[in-house]
Amino acid sequence: MTHAEHLDELTLEEKASLTSGGSFWSTKAVERVGIPAVTLTDGPHGVRLQRQGGDHLGLADSVPATCFPPAVALGASWDADLARRVGVALGEEAKAEGVGVLLGPGINIKRSPLCGRNFEYFSEDPLVSGVMGSALVGGLQSQGVGSSLKHFAANNQETDRLRISADVDERPLREIYLRAFQRVVTEQQPWTVMCSYNKINGVYASENHWLLTTVLREEWGYEGLVVSDWGAVDNRVTGVAAGLDLEMPASGGRTDAELVAAVRAGDLDEQHVTTAARRALELVDKIVAGADASASYDVDEHHALAREAAGRSIVLLKNDGDLLPLDPGSDDTIAVIGEFARTPRYQGAGSSLINPTRLDDALSELTKIAGDRVRFAPGFTLDGSGDAASMRADAASTAASASVAVLFLGLPAHEESEGFDREHIDLPADQLELLAAVQAANENVVVVLSNGGIVRTSTWQHLAPSIVEGWLLGQAGGGATADVLFGVINPSGRLAETIPVRLEDSPAHLGFPGAFGHVRYGEDIFVGYRGYDARSTEVSFPFGHGLSYTSFAYDNLAVDVQDASLRIQVEVTNTGSRDGREIVQVYTGLPDSTVPRATRSLAAFTVVDVAAGSTATATIDVPRSELAYFHPVAGQWTVEGGEYRVEVGASSRDIRVSTHVSVAGDDLALTLDETSTIAEWLDDERGGPLLRSALLDGESGLSGMLADPEMLKMVGSMPLGRVAAFPGSPLDEAGLDELVQSAKR
Ligand code: BGC
């Protein structure tokens, strides 16, 4: 008998008790009928199982677990298969620790570079976020461990995160902020979805019926359980009626009693509590079925996977004069400068903090390869203490005596974290002074960055011929960095977010982080590269950018328009002398769209490995749904007919081949009535002819106006009801009614 089959035997009190936590990280048991408590724990890039006590800020100690690259890094791999393998490994570790649900991945959109938690999210683009999130969830759940897809939804900042209302129009909400969730939910049925702290258009996510029931369940067909973010419940009774199933963490029974009282008072239909309890029991059943008391995992193997993933996540931003890779066989001395080389910053602070099984640092890993050719100088301290001038002088002299200076710069841990947002995107001033001093001593500067949110490069990138974006790479990042610097790995990471010239250029800048309890997403759908492109804003490094130690040529683009997709084929030739991996990116745009559209939107991408001198043919399907926009009046996704531009390239600003294809539009079922304008009537397949025959057949002044394109431009915006109200109008109230009736579908 499954636990869910006990539902009918449970009292109202027992059902209520099943739908809130028993402790910080577990649900409640109902011993009378043998229902066990289950464990949910953070996440997302490792298993954070706290030994005793509990908190959600990563303060209490947790059991050692592999710290895989956080999402900021993994997202930059653009490699779904890799994300899936990381998901499998996370599942193995969770299972070995008796954890039923791992709280992740976080797939919120990086709306502003200032979000303090961007290190936990994949991308500014919903396709990258959705594809990577889906792969990770698929891998995790294949091990019989549930995921908690978070934070649903529009949790794009930390400022006032427990109260703020994200005020977002329906198009950006659907097309940007919900899109990745939609993909993961429909593809993977995550066992749980975690609703966010914030309000959406004035209603708490945990009480948002539209979000949790209409969209998530009725439109997307979600069957799992909705859990609150830790402490996100404001009013449990309203929440349960809206579609919240499980409140976490424990409320000490207080809100269970509120639920029971609300049912008894007739304020809450018991069915809502029963449904939530059923979902809690179904989750218990899945967890019990997936559990394996004898499960273990191979620490070394997972460390190796963490290293591979980190290597694939590193983005080579710049490599003038092919300063990289360094030659492992040469006699050249290498100055390794910067405290981050010795004391890596490899993950972000807050609830995702993992206690790693081991920790590689770049200095030791570089030394393993280059031995005593490596000379180290710390250059600065992480807490700003010490004599900066002396450290700088020491670093400069170390650089002066070496062939190349590899300079590890980055954000100190206190500058970014869960719980607060950043105030700027600059590197610390002492590090920039160090860069200038080192560069004056030796022009062969390679900068290796460690940062969870992007940092500005425009003020200093001219000083460094090579820049390696090393994000926060997890516990094996040091080895992976050495792999990339010495060419053991030919870098293939790509920016999943734009690096702007200035923070002020960010499309969300003026609307972040809001005030007075509201943050208005005024940039609409123009988030990230969509915004930079729409304004032709110069950027330092565009979305999708990343170099390789080889080069690729794109040829022979062919697009076959099929019923359900566009089938893209393109030849990618490795024109350099090293084997390499290219991330082929497909963008689409509809220049003549009748609605605001991004110049180009990422519609698909794939990874191709191409040996030096060889050509590979990439075949990529762009589902027709990727061409759609959300029509807020019709309340549906729709593909507008027209000449679509299909662009394929190596970044959003490095399009190599492009073409146009004609795509037939969907029939948009708009309801025409007296509030619809003349233009809307005329544009409608059914309404147009009806209106024409009602108006244009006569000799009225209006028919003359509508026949004249210039006049039509002027009167086209008039609602038909207003036309009917004009004295002497050829369309009276009765005629209008008849027209509206016959236009009905
Ligand atoms: C975070 C979640 C996390 C939870 C439990 C919250 O503060 O927003 O991402 O899973 O705490 O630690």
UniProtKB/TrEMBL annotation:
Residues 582-652 form the Fibronectin type III-like domain. GO terms for molecular function: hydrolase activity, hydrolyzing O-glycosyl compounds. Signal peptide: none annotated. One of its GO terms (biological process) is carbohydrate metabolic process. Keywords: Carbohydrate metabolism, Glycosidase, Hydrolase. Coiled coil: none annotated. The keyword Hydrolase applies. InterPro entries: Cellulose_deg_GH3, Fn3-like, GH, Glyco_hydro_3_AS, Glyco_hydro_3_C, Glyco_hydro_3_C_sf, Glyco_hydro_3_N, Glyco_hydro_3_N_sf. It comes from the Bacteria. SMART domains: Fn3_like. Belongs to the glycosyl hydrolase 3 family. This is Beta-glucosidase. It comes from Pseudoclavibacter terrae.
